[in-house]
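Morning run. Coffee first, then this:
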Amino acid sequence: MSDEALAGNCRLSLSQPRVDYGLIRSAEVVDRQLILGKRTLQLSIVCAEAAPMSLRFTGVSAGTKGFRFGRQGYFTLSLQHPQVDGLAVELRVSGEPASGQLLPGQTLVARAGGAPMQGHRFTALVNIETFVPVLGLAVRDETTLEGQGSFEWVPGA
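And here it is:
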């Protein structure tokens, strides 16, 4: 993930641009899925002038599950504790309350009192959970599994 992106008068940054699970030897298995654990990052958007606070994540889709990780796995993204200029806001997708999970093709819009929120600073915690089918790990040699994408500030969403 890009750790810093500049668009217009706003700068988006992540506390950690890359999540590395290291060498996978054992992890929790649930429903034939290897769960690599939850990682939490801090996301912020800082704007020189007040702007609408909307964002999306672009990456290879794994359908309604989330984003592709390796050939058969996927990772999910969810945002918690969203704030604009220190005030709690709700995140909506197309005017509807967001499920908490950010899915491919969605743009999250910060809203307060039913109206889109503008401000100078947006912050939220991003939770990343990664799942790999156990059968996908039956390999002879060391294999690299990757998932890629980036957050984007979306002006005018």
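The radius of gyration is 17 Å. Good start to the day.
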